[in-house]
Design brief:
- The complex is a heterodimer of chains A (about 325) and B (about 220).
- Chain A has 13 helices and 14 strands.
- Chain A has about 325 residues and is α/β, with parallel strands linked by helices.
- Chain A folds into two domains: about 180 residues, Thiamin diphosphate (ThDP)-binding fold, Pyr/PP domains (Rossmann fold, 3-Layer(aba) Sandwich); about 130 residues, Rossmann fold.
- In chain A, the strands form three sheets. A seven-stranded mixed β-sheet of chain A has the order 3-2-4-5-7-6-12, sandwiched between helices.
- Chain B has about 220 residues and is an alpha/beta fold.
- The chains are: A alpha/beta (about 325), B alpha/beta (about 220).
- Chains A and B meet through helix 4, helix 5 and helix 6 of A and helix 1 and helix 2 of B.
Chain lengths: ~325, ~220
């Protein structure tokens, strides 16, 4: 075992996958600049600019070219910096990633979109989004977001090896998180949730940095004698509803927290699944702990109010336990 | 609607104007990363020239010196809008200058001229010299979609362009130069006709997909 940060974990994943499969290559905006500080460090030097390509700020060209290269047999990793910018290549996302279905399974698109998501750094409405619910409505796209360095490496390797488009996001506040990871090759399969903390009174289902917030809340609630189970979905598509349902059947109470405005959120979809499939096991109404229905504010104070955090979770738990 | 044939490396007609440009650019990028001598031909209409994808794709193709030929089929009509009413240039290949690549406009109804100019572009692409923009000036006889009554087009314009039909024109060339005899030509036409009729028959006689197929192929 060895200790790695979130960034190191991603860098290892990309390096190892580029090493084992020469159809894997990367393209995207600011790859070269970010290579000195971020996940691309050392990769341009090692693989050359023919396999790690710094592009213009052209989201449509980046994602469109990734689609074309994938259809032509490559495994591109398209770097788009921030989830917010996916709106710029909205057509590629909602109309072009669906080639597999449109062409009767004759074309596969093994590509990975990497981007940062999440608020908490006061970078305002255009660089802080998560848009999980919005992205879940895109068909033919898998979505994976790790909350630990261990999952960051394993999910990214699974995403690169997957024969479908996978959106792989990392929350900005997770960057310094560290994990013990094995020396040898491992993957974290897409569509497999992880119970990050076992408990018996209430289930908190979450993803991305909200998992960390849920674990912090669980720790504080333990002091009040409330036992919280924290389920980290790790991927939104495919969604591991079995693990969620199993946990709810055990605790009888559910809180879903995702960092996005509540209307149209991923949390709403998960709440609906549990209400439909485990209604008889519920001892209290399901609660969604999300953000208010507003753009993300710039002001540090307002952003803190906007974010669904530990205090919001503790309040929600104490209301239903 | 969205025909594709991956066995022929044909990545599909696109329902969104301009969307094929970055996708084709990506196919050319795949060839470059793999280090093969493949060349991508990217076809789009005059309508696609004013989408942001045109700019992003041509810039990427040019900056990365990708083996791709961007071919504009300028048929003078964007759905029901006359191209000259919404573009302040007549020579669509002039935009190549903005990307630092060669641009050429050809008679889109002249098979041989297209073959020559695209052939030169393919040669350039294979030599690692990057993309070329080729504008083929032609005309859209039919509507934007089947059932389009084309009220927006003057009949004289359609009649005029139908006289410039590239098929009889090339046929004439082949006969005059002794490449084909009248008999060979008729035989070829008959063969093509039978192939198309057989394809139509196959399509009409094929069963509709079963309801459970609605859930198939969302993922590979």
């Amino acid at each position: 075992m060895k200790k790695v940060t979130f960034l190191q974990a991603q860098r290892e994943a990309i390096n190892e996958e580029m090493e084992r499969d020469d159809t894997v290559f990367a393209l995207g905006e600011t790859i070269r600049e970010m290579s000195t500080t971020g996940i691309w460090e050392g990769l341009i030097t090692k693989y050359g600019e023919g396999r790690v390509l710094d592009t213009a700020i052209s989201e449509q060209a980046i994602l469109g070219a990734a689609i074309g290269a994938a259809a032509a047999g490559m495994r591109p990793i398209a770097s788009l910096m921030f989830v917010d910018f996916l709106g710029v290549c909205g057509d590629e996302l909602i109309n072009q990633l669906q080639m597999t279905y449109m062409f009767g399974g004759k074309i596969k698109l093994p590509l990975t979109i990497v981007a940062g998501c999440g608020a908490g750094l006061s970078v305002a409405a255009q660089h802080s989004k998560s848009m999980f619910g919005w992205l879940m409505s895109v068909k033919g796209l898998k979505i994976a977001i790790p909350s630990t360095a261990y999952d960051a490496k394993g999910l990214l390797k699974a995403a690169i090896r997957d024969d479908n488009p996978v959106a792989y996001f990392t929350h900005k506040l997770s960057a310094d998180q560290t994990s013990e990871i094995p020396e040898e090759d491992y993957i974290v399969p897409l569509g497999k949730a992880d119970v990050k903390r076992e408990g018996s009174d209430v289930t908190i289902v979450s993803i991305a940095y909200s998992v960390t917030r849920a674990l912090n809340a669980a720790e504080k609630l333990q002091e009040q004698g409330i036992s919280v189970e924290v389920v980290d979905l790790r991927s939104l598509v495919p969604l591991d509803k079995e693990t969620v349902l199993e946990s709810v059947k055990k605790t009888g109470r559910l809180i879903v927290t995702t960092e996005e405005p509540v209307t149209g959120s991923a949390a709403g979809e998960i709440a609906a699944i549990v209400a439909s499939e485990a209604f008889d096991y519920l001892d209290a109404p399901i609660k969604r702990v999300c953000a208010p229905d507003t753009p993300i504010p710039f002001s540090v104070g307002l952003e803190k109010t906007w974010l669904p955090d530990e205090e919001d979770l503790i309040k929600a738990v104490t209301e239903i336990v | 609607m969205h025909i594709a044939d991956t066995d022929l490396h044909m990545l599909g007609a696109n329902g969104i104007v301009g969307a094929g440009i970055p996708i084709a650019t990506g196919a050319a990028l795949a060839s470059k990363v793999r280090g093969t001598k493949e060349v991508t031909l990217c076809f789009f209409g005059d309508g696609a020239n004013n989408t942001c994808r045109y700019h992003e794709g041509l810039n990427m193709g040019s900056a990365m010196r990708l083996p791709i030929i961007y071919i504009i089929e300028n048929n003078l009509w964007m759905v029901s809008t006359r191209t000259e009413d919404v573009m302040n240039i007549t020579d669509l290949s002039c935009r190549a200058a903005a990307y630092g690549i060669p641009g050429v406009s050809v008679d889109g109804n002249d098979v041989l001229e297209i073959c020559e100019k695209v052939g030169e572009a393919v040669e350039r692409a294979r030599n690692g010299e990057g993309p070329t923009l080729v504008e083929c000036r032609t005309y859209r006889w039919r509507g934007h979609m089947e059932g389009d009554p084309q009220f927006y087009k003057p009949q004289e314009e359609i009649d005029e362009w139908m006289k410039k039909d590239p098929i009889p024109r090339y046929e004439k060339y082949l006969l005059e130069n002794g490449v084909y005899t009248e008999e060979m030509m008729n035989e070829l036409k008959q063969k093509m006709l039978e192939e198309v009729e057989a394809a139509v028959k196959f399509a009409e006689e094929s069963p509709s997909p079963s309801p459970e197929e609605v859930l198939e192929d969302v993922f590979a």
